Amino acid sequence: MAATNTHEAIETVFRIERARLIAGLARMVRDVGLAEELAQDGLVTALSDWPKMGVPRNPGAWLMAAAKRRALDGFRRTKMLARKHAELVRDLEGEQDTSVEDIESAMDDDVGDELLSLIFIACHPVLSTEARAALTLRLIGGLTTGEIARAFLSNEATIAQRIVRAKKTLGNARLTFEVPRGREREERIGSVLEVIYLIFNEGYAATVGQDLIRPALCGEAQRLGRILAGLAPEEPEVFGLLALMEIQASRLAARTGPDGSLVPLTEQNRARWDRVLIRSGLAALERAEALGGADGPYALQAALAACHARARKVEETDWHQIAGLYDRLQAVLPSPVVDLNRAVAHSMAFGPEVGLTLLEGIDRSPALRNYAPLPAAFGDFLFRAGRLSEAKIHFERAADLTSNEREKAFLLRRAAACADGR
Amino acid sequence: MRVMVLVKATKDSEEGLMPSTTLLEAMGKYNEELVNAGIMLAGEGLKPSAQGKRVAFEGPSRTVVDGPFAETRELVAGFWLWQVRDMAEAVEWVKRCPNPMPGPSEIEIRPVYEMADFAEALTPEVAELHDRNREKTARR
């Protein structure tokens, strides 16, 4: 019993320290895969030593010291002749006498930079987005390949291979393990945010009854976002994305009905929105705006989500503000779906005729050809403009296009209301 | 999962003794670590129970009782709300907390109920009833 408890405690300590450990080792050996193996070696050493000596006071620094010794042993054993490795051995030997306390203080100084650099490496644009997501969850999130496979509805062999290939690609790319600066930093931050939001959306798309690990991806992404916010506190879009995820996640409990179908925003029971997450999302948005990032694509989407989060009742929604935000979002993130949402916002703020005029401009977009929300919007605007027979046709078309049963029933009810003349 | 981390009161905290500069500094550093690890959702310190009140329920009657309350060890002096992967992670993080009190003290970790905990017991009908009740409560 006691042994099992100690074992579990060690595994937990390792899980908490793992990302920092890999980050520090990766910068040292310039190889993510090797760094991961060395960190694992550190765990093996801890599992044999700690039950005898007790958990050390600075477990992270202890693990780092153990992993460094293993690295050195490994280099010596294989007698690598390459100059790079000879230099590395010299560096490592120079550090050999350093105490755990020295390593600890060094870790405290560098860890932010090292962890940030590891996140940048895992999300490097030389990798496909899927590979970046898998590697990030593995290296930073500490998920097993099996968990990642289940989360992405894939099989373990595929994910394992994806991660191995990604590490190889990174190795071949001869990357520097420094945090990028200037213009490059901006692009690379974009790549990191894209990966985190992809992980979040994968979790958000999970449906009720599926493996719980899928919705848990939202939590993983939020955690990554919060960690990143701590590491890059001057990047407005980091806070923009964090705000967007926190506010969207605040609605997770309210957005599915008892039968598991999706409940649209306007129909949700707002008493079930998570106030803790809304508060933290609004704070992150405020930070993004204070950093001068109010017009970043993530910050604008967060600001839109915030408008809904602030309205305790649907009727309190500030559609004028939402319409204005969509105007700005359209400028920085043009897409037919944004155009459509903008038309809806304008119709709510300025009347159905305004909405109809805006819709006329976009209804030929191929991306929207079979997109139920488009005819649903037409139906709604026409209905509100009193053109009931035209509205009915559009509601029926929207009902045909949607695969969500609850939404279909809702649209057919609206179509029936047109026929009743109500 | 979410956990509520409860810092239990002591004689000192009940007397309103303010933490030392050293402790404030250590706590600040610890809180920063919690934020940077992405687990901190909320946290506050509570004033002594002398400034608190209790409402006792019995049938339809409601009796207001003024603090302070006697059973010091059972009182709460502060709390955090954390998002962690599991209980073991919460325990490890609590171990890293500086002792919040000048003398011996205790921190309690309690998991928060989540919808998934009810998933099996909750039929769609009951879930909807539950929803309606919550909605009514919120309107009150």
TrEMBL record, chain A:
Q: Which residues form the RNA polymerase sigma-70 region domain?
A: 19-79
GO MF, any single term: sigma factor activity
* Entry-linked Pfam families: DUF6596, Sigma70_r2, Sigma70_r4_2
Q: Name one GO biological process term.
A: DNA-templated transcription initiation
Domain (RNA polymerase sigma factor 70 region 4 type) spans 119-170
Q: Could you tell me the superkingdom of the organism this chain comes from? A: Bacteria
Q: Taking every annotated instance into account, which residue ranges of this chain make up the domain DUF6596? A: 188-288
Q: Which PANTHER family match?
A: BLL0085 PROTEIN, BLL6612 PROTEIN-RELATED
The name this protein carries in UniProt is: RNA polymerase sigma factor
UniProtKB/TrEMBL annotation, chain B:
SUPFAM superfamilies the record matches: Dimeric alpha+beta barrel (SSF54909)
Taking every annotated instance into account, which residue ranges of this chain make up the domain YCII-related?
Answer: 1-115
Pfam families xrefs: YCII (PF03795)
Q: Which InterPro entries match?
A: Dimeric_a/b-barrel, YCII
Family indicated by similarity: Belongs to the YciI family.
Protein name (database record): YciI family protein
